TrEMBL record:
It comes from the Bacteria. Residues 1-31 form the signal peptide. The lineage of its organism: Bacteria, Bacillati, Actinomycetota, Actinomycetes, Kitasatosporales. The chain crosses the membrane at residues 50-70. It comes from Streptomyces albiaxialis. Keywords: Membrane, Signal, Transmembrane, Transmembrane helix. This is Secreted protein.
Length: 79
């Protein structure tokens, strides 16, 4: 039983160390230097960000759901 616990602890430690190493290697600190051809545009305002990442997906969902409901209702009338 003790041997199995040690193997599980070793496996968990290895996975944790590997994940931590990968996160450190991909940290944003390495993104501070600009690459050739890197030309960032102006930042988005709060309203533009909310519109792009909140309102647009909600509207798209509602349009798709409405089209599905309209298609479903038209089939029920003909039955």
């Amino acid at each position: 039983m003790s041997n199995k616990v040690n193997k599980n602890a070793l496996r968990a430690g290895t996975v944790t160390a590997g994940a931590t190493l990968m996160m450190l290697l991909s940290s944003p600190a390495f993104a501070l230097t600009r690459d050739d051809g890197d030309d960032p545009g102006p930042g988005l305002s709060i309203m533009e960000t909310l519109g792009l990442y909140v309102a647009a997906p909600v509207v798209l969902f509602l349009v798709i759901a409405g089209l599905v409901m309209a298609g479903d209702k038209s089939r029920k009338k003909s039955s």
